[in-house]
Model the fold of this input.
Amino acid sequence: MKAMILAAGLGTRLRPLTDTIPKPLLPVGGAPLVLWNLLLLRANGIQEVIINLHYLGSMIEEALGDGSRWNMRITYSYEPELLGTGGGLKTAEWFFERQSFLVMNGDTLIDLDIPALLDFHYSQGGIATLVLRDDPQAVQWGSVESDAQDRLLRINGQGVEEGLSKSVATSRMFAGVHILHPSLLDDAPTGKPFSIIDSYTRALAGGSRLLGFVHTGYWSDIGTVERYTQAQADVEAELMGLPHRKG
Done:
């Protein structure tokens, strides 16, 4: 399986830290943030990765190169204008050769059991699997509702018809990691910004099978200075327990 890391964002909430360095290169535990996810992928047998770039993108490419120093192959997808999560995936869809692929955010730290995620995705037979986690602020992050069989019902209130009782649904937050088949992007516009969540909600409304894989391990979104500081402390305290940090 191939993977994509989304790294084109501006990192505005982390300013002034991101005034001269892109968020994916901010150091955490002595390594650039984006490297943690690259090494997580490599440790689980995923070596071919494409990274989308926009803000200070040349710095990211210079830092990571072609990935050979980590026994990986890194390709880059430049976005002269930001295309959002969906637009970025659409632009890079050629890279996946019509095969399902894994997507991660370049600004997230996660101690994810990727083999378990892959087993779940392929055994359940969905067109996409979103990694979900329990969080008391799930609604603020964006609520994802799934049933007792882990099938997604609604994302941000949109998806399966309301006739299906909400009493059977469990609400969680999307952790920013997902597996999807490129066919989900077939009807999406090329070269225009859009969110992949829009594609997911349309697919749900159309009866497609989308799934939710529940993650119970470490997760941190490095979206603000406060969360960045906390993530650094977590890594120093070895709360993540990631053997691949040694590279």
Observations:
- Confidence is low (pLDDT under 50) at residues 243-247.
